[in-house]
Amino acid sequence: MAMLEVRDLRVQFRTDDGLVKAVDGLSFDLERGRTLGIVGESGSGKSVTSLAIMGLHRDSGTDITGQIRLDGEDLVSARAERVRQLRGLKMAMIFQDPLTALHPYYTVGAQISEAYRVHNHVSKQVARKRAVDLLGRVGIPQPSVRVDDYPHQFSGGMRQRAMIAMALSCDPGLLIADEPTTALDVTVQAQILDLIVDLQSEFGSAVIIITHDLGVVAEVADDVLVMYAGRMAEKGSAGDVFRHPGHPYAWGLLGSMPRLDAARVDRLRPIRGTPPSLINVPSGCPFHPRCSYSSQVGGDRCRTEIPLLRETGPGHQVACHLTLSKQQQIWAELSQPASAEPAAAETPPADDGTAETEAGEKAAQTAAANSATAGEPGQDVTEVEAP
């Protein structure tokens, strides 16, 4: 049995404008010790999914159906108090913006200690020592001193490290990282990702990385789930999704990134259009208004029929009406690196030194002739015969 099992999850928000279908029938599993990367554009339902797992959507304006089982215990039907007991103890979350997630009125150490004491009956001194140890573990310099600093005294990377320390204070089995490297420079991003990988191997946690950066997913994820309009478009191992993607939306995401294995001679290909409104989701395949390949599907299926998930390989699922052979053919064409040189370019003749010698002789002859013709009075003029 997987540590986390999500089955037919649906999250809907009742608003004055209508019913927002933020997550619409999502299912996946996550084993302990593995990392799942959830990718997609803003508004695809990534963060809503993570907040539903954490039980942070429990208000009168939200409807949640389906199943979320953590170690066999269903969180959707559980009481709010029971979910609160599990939150922090068995599952924890690193939020997108640590500056707003951390309380500005309390020191960083006090907030880590509080998270630890909620689930462990220990003294303040023991909790403080735990906070110092965790800050040192996540790479904060002088942790015994910085434990008494406030969030605004930390840099962006240090605040994110403090959030990781708080999330890991009770050694949770499930860690959800929602855009953990947003607004961080590239060097700090790499450090944070390395830290998450190291801590996962140390604590044996299952990790969900939510991001729109495919580079982050390629760095740390074992499996990839591509979401669009609240639904799963594609899911498989990181190797399958990056090397053999089958959904046009996944092709668009990969095509909008620069490649290191080929010279770039053309502009990157953006995905045309914008994500749909989750109040008025297009009929049929939600991606069909932006898809360049719907014409290659017979009839009007893309506009009228919701595509079902199909196995295209072991553990690789794609929700698309295109046949498997057509998917493979299109991706083979798209993945070919563009040539850096025009095909009609002529190859210059080999330079064996002959042309340079002949040009030098002609130049010498011309210079001598000009000098003889333009000689000053009284000078001897020597005729130059052509060889």
Topology:
Elements: E1 4-14, E2 19-30, E3 35-39, H1 46-53, E4 62-70, E5 73-74, H2 80-86, E6 91-94, H3 98-101, H4 108-119, H5 124-137, H6 143-146, H7 156-167, E7 174-178, H8 186-203, E8 206-211, H9 214-220, E9 223-228, E10 231-237, H10 238-243, H11 248-255, H12 301-304, E11 309-313, E12 316-319, H13 324-334, H14 354-373
Parallel strand pairs: 3-8, 3-9, 6-7, 7-8
Antiparallel strand pairs: 1-2, 1-4, 4-5, 9-10, 10-12, 11-12
Helix pairs in contact: 4-5, 4-7, 5-7, 7-8
Order of helices and strands: EEEHEEHEHHHHHEHEHEEHHHEEHH
Largest sheet: 8 strands, mixed
Portion of residues in beta strands equals: 15-25%
The gross shape turns out to be globular
Q: How large is the radius of gyration?
A: 31 Å
How many E strands? 12
- The strands making up the biggest β-sheet line up spatially as 6-7-8-3-9-10-12-11
End-to-end C-alpha gap: 94 Å
- State mean pLDDT (0 to 100 scale): 86
Q: Which structural class do you get from the secondary structure elements?
A: alpha/beta
State the share of residues found in helices, binned by percent.
25-40%
* Tally of DSSP helical segments: 14
